[in-house]
User: Fold these one by one.
Assistant:
Number 1:
Amino acid sequence: MKFFIDTADLKQIKEANDLGILDGVTTNPSLMAKVGISGEEAVMQHYKTICDIVDGDISAEVVSTDFEGIIAEGKKLASIHPNIVVKVPMIQEGIKAIKWFTDNGIRTNCTLIFSAGQAILAAKAGATYVSPFIGRIDDSSWDGMELIAQISHIYQVQGFKTEILAASIRNALHIVKAAEAGADVCTCPLSSILGLLKHPLTDIGLAQFLEDAKKFA
Ligand code: G3P
C-alpha cells in the first residue's frame, strides 16, 4: 500500500518525507486555505514547491465545476510537473472532464467519493485514483471501511485499473483497516502516520533495554 500525506503544510510534508516511506501528497482547497495559500499564482507556486520536496504523485485539486473550466485548470496544474495528478470532484461535469483527461494522457484523482456507484463511474471514466472519504462516512454513522472493501471487490471482479485511495483518514487504526480492506493508497495526516509507530509495550521494552545496557557500559 502506498502512503500519501494529506496536507499542504510544508513542514509536515518534509517531516513525513524524511521518514523515507512517503509515496505522494494530496491536498484540497481547505488544506491550502489552512496554511494561508490563496490566489492562482500562490497555489501554483505551492504545488511546485511540494513537487520539489516529494518524488511521488501530488494531487492538485481544481475549483471549477464546469467542463471547460475544469479542463483549463487541470491542464495548467498538470503543466507544473509530471507528478501532478489532477483532482476532480465527483460531479457530472467532473466525470466528463476525467474522461477527457484520460484520453489526453493527464492522470486524475476523483474526489468526494461516498458510494460504490460513484467509484464505478470514476473508474469507467479512467480515473487514476478514486478517493472515498472514510472519516466523513464514519462521521455520518455509516461504515467507511465497508465502502473500501466493496469498491476493492468490484474493481477486482471487473478488472478496473483505478487505484483506491482511502482519504479522510483520522487515525492509525483507519490506516490498518484500509490496508486490510484493500486500499491501494492511504492519504493521512502526519499524526496518523506517526500514530502507527506507537505502542506502550515498545516504550516500556526500550526503556528496559537502555537501562540494562548501562550495566555493561
Ligand atoms: O483527502 C480528503 C481529506 O482531506 C478530507 O479529510 O478530514 O477533511 O474529512 P477530512
Number 2:
Amino acid sequence: MFQDLNALPEDSILGLMGKFRADLSRDKVDLGVGVFRDEAGNTPVLECVRRAEAQILRDQTTKSYVAPAGRAEFNALVQSLVLGDQHPVIAGNRSRTVQSPGGCGALRLGAELIKAAAAQSVVQVSDPTWGNHLPLLGGAGLKLQRYPYYDAATHQLKFDAMMEALERCNPGDVVLLHACCHNPSGADLSPPQWGAVLSLLQRRRLVPFLDLAYQGFGEGRDADAYGVRLLSGELPEALVAVSFSKNFGLYRERVGALIAIGGDPAKADAMQSHMLQIARSIYSMPPDHGAAVVAGILSDAAQRQLWEAELGQMRGRIQSMRRLLAATLRQKSGSGRFDFIQTQHGMFSLLGIPAPLVLRLREQHHVYMVPDGRMNIAGVTPQNVGYLAESILAVLNP
Ligand code: LMR
C-alpha cells in the first residue's frame, strides 16, 4: 500500500529548527520558527506559568476526561480576554467558545465548521500569509483564494488592492484576517482601515475569520484585539481562532480556542453543536494541562497581574530589538532602507530579499530565516545584532 508514497519536503518553518540545531557555528543566529526568545536566546517558562503549574500539581485529584469543549471556565475567560467584558456579543449571548489543541486546532475546527455550513464558500487568504494557513484551511476541503496584502519589496501594505479584491467576493465568502502582528509581514491594519474593512464586509455580506495568535505582542492586550472586537460587535457572524502559544509561552502544551459568533443565541448553539461533533471526530478532546494553566492565571488577580507584566516585558523586548536592528542596519548601510522594521508589529518582518539570498545568509553566514525572508525579531539580541546586520549587508552587496 505505501510503497508508492514519495517523501514530502520538510515544512518550511519547522524544518529550520533541525537545521539550526545541527549547525555547529558559534556565530549562528536563529530568526526562524516563531517563538519568543530572551536576551540570552532562551524561550523561558513564564513565572506565572510556573506558579500555576505548581498549584495544579498540588490540587489536581483526577486525570479523568474533561469534555469535547474543554474546560468551561477556560472558555469563559478566553471570551472575556479576547472580546472584553462589556462586549455586546457576550451581553447578547451570541458566542460559543470551544477549547482547541492550539491555534492550529482552532483554525482547522473553524474550517470544518465553514465546510459543514457552506461547503461551497471560498476562503480569502492574505498574500502573503503564514505558511500553515493554506494546509489547515485547504485541508478541510475549502476553496482558497488570495487577496493582495503586502509588498515585501517596497515594505508597503497593499490596502487599496486588498479592498478591490474583497469587493469582488461573493456574499457568504469568508475572509481570513490576521487580528494583529501579521505573520509574516508585521504590517497591521490601522483602526481606520479596520473600519473600512468592516463596511466592506457588511456591504458584501462576507464573514470574517480572525486569527488572533499574538494578542499582547503588538501594541497591547486590548489594542491588539481592536479589529476582533470591532468586527464581531458589528457583524452578525464571525469566527475567531485564538492561540496561547506565544502570549503565555505555552507552545508545546497546545492551548487555543475557537470563538464562534452567530446571529442569535440559537444560531450560536447550533454552531457549537457542530464544533463539538467536529472535535469529537478529529481529536475527541483537547489536551487539558495548558488550558488549566491559562484558566488558573486569568482567574486570579495576582497571577493575572504577573502575566500582564511578563507579557509587557516580552512585547517590550521585541519592540526594542526592532529599533536596535533598524538602527544598526541604518548605521552600517548609511541608508534608511530597513527603517520599516522598527514601525512594524509583533514577532515578524519580511526582510524583502529573494530566496537565493536567504539561502546564502544561511549557508555562508549561519543566519536562519524562513525562505520568504521572514525574520523572527525575537531572535535578535544586543550581542548578535552587529553580526546579523553585517551578514545581511554582505549578501546584498557581495
Ligand atoms: C511560526 O509561525 O513560526 C509559528 O507559528 C510556528 C509554526 O507552527 O509555524
